[in-house]
Structure formats: structure tokens, C-alpha cells
Amino acid sequence: MWNFLDVGIMDLNGNIIDNNGLKYTVNPDIIFKKLEETGKYISDVVIDGNKQLNQLTVVVPIYDNSKIIGAFLGRYPISLIEKNTDLLETSHLYFQIIDTTGEYIARSKNKYVMGKSISVWSEAKRYKFYNNTSVEQIMENIKLKKSGNLITKLLFLIG
Fold first, then answer.
1. What whole-number distance in Å separates Cα of residue 21 and Cα of residue 141?
2. Model pTM greater than 0.85?
3. Are 124 and 136 in contact (CB under 8 A)?
4. Where are the alpha helices (DSSP H) in 3-154?
5. Where are the domains of the chain?
6. At residue 157, does pLDDT exceed 90?
7. Which of 46, 77, 96, 119 sits 20 to 30 Å CA-CA off 52?
């Protein structure tokens, strides 16, 4: 179950009305550009000050004869992503969400999770990346707001 905080509809000018009747306007340029390119838009996290309300906005297009005429959007709390992963604290699988600057937004509550107290870039230097991925490629993808995932192996440094 998705459990969005609220959902809304947006016109091409960025005018939004949500399910609570609230009306507001956003700059639609970046959103509709991404919708044209990929068919979806996921925002950076909106930090509310209350960890339970930190959220992403997910946007999908509305089409009329294959032309985008608007969009549906929903605000989704990060705390539900953490709660719904069902990963054990002792599992070697875990998730992390970082923003477009590389700062951590959310992490699994897992004893193996990387980045407990250091930056994502310092932590990344300790890993071997598969599929010919490099830290530089990851940084560039983040700057370009590309989504993705990584497969890594921790390199233990003794000495």
C-alpha cells in the first residue's frame, strides 16, 4: 500500500490542487522536462524538520492522444520506505537514499550499513564497484539527477 500523505493534479503551468483542496503553484519546467524524457519525476527530499514528514514527491504524466496535458503527483514519506523494506538488522542487504548533493537522507537500521558516521564519498572509497562503475560516475549521475542502484563489495583495509 502506497500511503501517500496527499495526492494532487497539476496543469502545464504548475498550478496544483490536492485532495485536501489546497492550491499552490510550482515551477513546472524541470518536472515536465523529466516527464517528457522518462515518464516520471521524483523530487529531492523535502525536509520538514519532523523526520516522519520528510518526503519525496512522485509525479506521473496525464496524456491526451500521447501529448502530456498535466500530471498526477503524490507526496510520500521517507519513514514509510524505511519501515516497509522488511530487511533484517543482521541482513547483508540494506538500502540508502542520498540526495543530489550526496548527503544521506535515509538508511536501513542495519549493523552492516555503510556510512554510519562519514560522508557517502568517503565511504564509497572503501568499496569495489561492479559493472565498471566508479565514484566519479556516481557523482555525475547524482548531479544529473539520474536514478540507479549499485552492487559493491567492501574492501577491508587492515593495517
1. 36
2. no
3. no
4. 29-38, 78-84, 120-124, 135-143
5. 6-78, 85-154
6. no
7. 119
